[in-house]
TrEMBL record:
Its main location: cytoplasm. The keyword Cytoplasm applies. Transmembrane segments: none annotated. It comes from Shewanella frigidimarina. It holds the Pfam family FdhD-NarQ. One of its GO terms (biological process) is Mo-molybdopterin cofactor biosynthetic process. This is Sulfur carrier protein FdhD. Required for formate dehydrogenase (FDH) activity. Acts as a sulfur carrier protein that transfers sulfur from IscS to the molybdenum cofactor prior to its insertion into FDH.
Amino acid sequence: MTQSVSATSLQRNAIKFVKTNTQVPLTIAVKAINEQGQVVDKFVACERPLTVYLNWRPIVTLMTLGAKPESLTIGYLKNQGFISELSLLESVIVDWEVSSAAVITQEVSEDIEQKLSEKTVTSGCGQGTVYGGFLQGLDEIDLPTPSLKQSTIYALLGNINAYNETYKNAGAVHGCGICQDEQILAFVEDVGRHNAVDTLAGDMWLDQQSGHDKIFYTTGRLTSEMVIKVAKMGIPVLLSRSGVTQMGLDLAMQMGITLIARAKGRHFLVYHGSETIEFDATKD
């Protein structure tokens, strides 16, 4: 069931823009046959296209759950280098009737055609694409040196179990979270891990939140894209339930990100930044 656009005027850190309040279901009830040949009631995760427009020019079509499409759209455009000035952002309007998200900004991107022509197929869930502006500004990122305790990692991993609602209900999704010490400040699920991180990036940018004292958690693998996006958010610690790629590790080393992978229960592997961690629970 889709809902047509219903825009309301919002105020966010003195930046006024039009934002929709549309909502769509994240899961849907279905019938399945189990290994005993019995009919069982189950849920599956929804997946729907969302075409992103920048000043009415189509940029990309994202496949998403649709939980926070406005933040996803803003985060995607910022991470890809299509927008950079929050003060020039005028509106973001989502209309599920036509599966679109339109962003209007006064910012002029003179090299938009060049960016769109420089595409790289990535290791994103399914098949991802990054554009020419994705690598811009990396040399200007200066991340702080974190200080983290092993006991804090254990507590955080324990607390994260209270989230992943869509995954517990239907599976087939990734989850990402913004954390501070062992507390989860925000958590987003989507059909792809990059949608989830872009959504959180959009929220942080719109609210002008600092990432210097945060930890980024993801259920997905730590590829070069994930490391770059977290670095752009100013977050110095990246924690994953999954593994890490060689390029992801190389970038984490170059950018000074503490990289922790295969983290589940009381197990984790520190691939970079072990000196920033106090191993205070080795005998617990």
